[in-house]
Amino acid sequence: MSSIISVADLSKTYGSGFKALKNINLDIKRGEIFALLGPNGAGKTTLISIICGIANPSEGKVLVGGENIQTSYRKARSLIGLVPQELHTDAFESVWATVSFSRGLFGKPKNPAHIEKVLKDLSLWDKKDNKIITLSGGMKRRVMIAKALSHEPQILFLDEPTAGVDVELRKGMWEVVRTLQQSGVTIILTTHYIEEAEEMADRIGVINKGEIVLIEDKMTLMQKLGKKRLTLHLQGKLDALPESLSHYELALCDAGATLVYDYDTKGERTGITSLLGDLRTAGIRFNDLDTTQSSLEDIFVDLVRTS
Amino acid sequence: MNHRAIRAIYLFEMARTWRTLLQSIVSPVVSTSLYFVVFGAAIGSRISQVEGVSYGTFIVPGLIMLSVLTQSIANASFGIYFPKFTGTIYEILSAPISYFEIVLGYVGAAATKSIILGLIILATAGLFVPLHIQHPVWMLTFLVLTAVTFSLFGFIIGIWADGFEKLQMIPMLVVTPLTFLGGSFYSIDMLPPTWRTVALLNPVVYLISGFRWSFYEIADVSVSVSMGMTTAFLVICLVVIWWIFRTGYRLKN
To answer: In terms of Cα–Cα distance, which of B208, B252, B251 is closest to B226?
Structure first.
């Protein structure tokens, strides 16, 4: 798959001397959903702002659809739709007027049929004549998406699209994003909700302290870095682990009622067989067991902690 | 050139004028009418003529300039400051539109509003005093040039301001006093020689003088000097705006 966005050696240093981005290299594939994860202040919004033309880079080069964002900014920007993190809207404009304004700003001729489709897709059609100030937070968020889609972009940046949005609306938003991807739009998503990335993204990028820590296909990432946990529910409570089991890094939980064993799925040997044998030898019986896969959130926390 | 983007910004700004019609148009007309009542009737009854023109008629160009200057600054500064304040500036900055086109949209709308206002005040003045414009083309030229120049100046203030207080500071503390002291209500020839020299340092003197000349062919300074000074201020504003966009000052981090 070809790259629709190519970021090379990008750095950003603010006037205060703070380095928000350090030598970022990133390629976004055409048609994918790319989730950019990172803690607060990691540089996610700065990176998006530079690609979209809102902030100036200090060093490096960004190509959007093969066009340089600085020398061919018209062509580059016309490919992008941006939904920023904050709800920035013209409070006293109607939904229809503000979405039409956005289309004009991007140099597109009037197309009421397209605006109507966008508003209908986002369940905003019945609110088209309402002033934005009268809309709920969730609706305002959808108006922001409608504005970003008004000029039929090939790339959509969603900066924390579901921040402060209730669960039902969030799932509705995910549906919208999936539909957009099916129509060929490339989506770059930043989020704090790991479940959002886990649910939707094709690839994951993790940024921390202005540096890209990792870029990986979501499934590969979860397989590579995922850990599993074996939990044994004991027949009788233990006060302490016997000496013969000390080399397993077991944890005794629930006041000695359960034994927890974390193991690496990528390792050749998980150690489970020998553990079960040693438990039997030590006379420790259990009446149930279960295993759980670590989530993307666990992986993310691990990565950020170690980077 | 992205004509549709310029049009979108221009119409968006003009729509705000119609939405706030009372504030944008009616209020300056009412206050100008009050100037006529106070300065024209009360003071004018004690000053019969200035350079062969009745006092009420004499102050008309100054009153128009007073409103055009202040409204151009207010319209343009608010026009660009408000998107900064609400955050909607992100959309302008991320659109495929050049700096020149952004300025054309905002300043074009602000200047249009001021010109309409100036013409409304002129018509209002015609209800109070007899008017005869000797050089209508020059009158329109000065009107348009002043509206555009001070809209550019207002645009700069709107970019520079990081709060409503700053937005008001320059218009209230600098522009209004300069306009009042710039010969809106008197000829600077009426001042003592020292104060006349000081008054010539005020750029507004040249604007009002040139504008008044287009009405009555009377001027405090020569028309070419007035035109030169106005054009010079226009060029200075353009250079500052070029620098703002080149560096991203107060717009891009």
So the answer is: B208
pLDDT at A30 over 70: yes
> How confident is the prediction for chain A on average, in pLDDT?
86
Q: Is B5 in Cβ contact with A88 (below 8 Å)? A: no
Residue of B nearest to A101 (CA): B8
User: Residue B91 is nearest to which of A75, A92, A105, comparing CB atoms?
Assistant: A105
Our CA-based measurement puts residue B6 at a distance from the nearest CA of chain A, in whole angstroms, of: 7
* pLDDT at residue B50, as a whole number: 75
Q: What tens digit of pLDDT does each residue of B200-228 get?
A: 888 888 888 899 999 988 888 888 998 99
How long is chain A?
307
Sign of the torsion angle spanned by Cα atoms B223, B225, B228, B229: negative
CA–CA dist A23, A219 (Å, integer): 26
Residue A172 distance to chain B (closest CA, Å) = 25
Sequence-distant (≥ 6) Cβ neighbours of residue B141 within 8 angstroms? B214
Q: For residue A146, give the nearest of A171, A179, A178, A124 by alpha carbon.
A: A124
Q: Which of B12, B86, B93 sits opposite A54 (nearest CB)?
A: B93
Q: How confident is the model at residue A164 (pLDDT cuts 50, 70, 90)?
A: low
Q: Is ipTM > 0.95 here? A: no
Percent share of chain A, pLDDT over 70: 92
Out of A46, A73, A82, closest to residue B96 by CB? A73
DSSP code string of A31-81: T-EEEEE--TTSSHHHHHHHHHTSS--SEEEEEETTEETTTTHHHHHHTEE
Question: CB–CB of A106 and B7 under 8 A?
Answer: no
Question: A195 near A297, Cβ under 8 Å?
Answer: yes
Nearest to A189 by CA among A169, A171, A213, A205: A205
Give the pLDDT confidence of A218-249 residue by residue, as tens digits.
888 776 666 778 899 999 888 888 888 888 88
CB distance B97–A107 less than 8 Å? yes
Least Cα separation, residue B47 to chain A (angstroms): 48
Which pLDDT score, from 0 to 100, does residue A116 have?
93
Residue pair B52/B212 in contact by the 8 Å Cβ criterion: no
Q: Chain-centre distance of CA A31, in angstroms?
A: 16
Residues of B at the A interface, defined by Cβ within 8 angstroms: 2-5, 7-9, 12, 15, 19, 86-88, 90-98, 248, 252-253
Report chain A residues whose CB lies below 8 A from the CB of B79: none
Question: B80-114, pLDDT tens digit by residue?
Answer: 998 888 888 889 999 999 888 999 999 999 999 99
Q: From the list B15, B91, B98, which residue is nearest A102 (CB)?
A: B91
Cα–Cα dist B251/B248, whole Å: 5
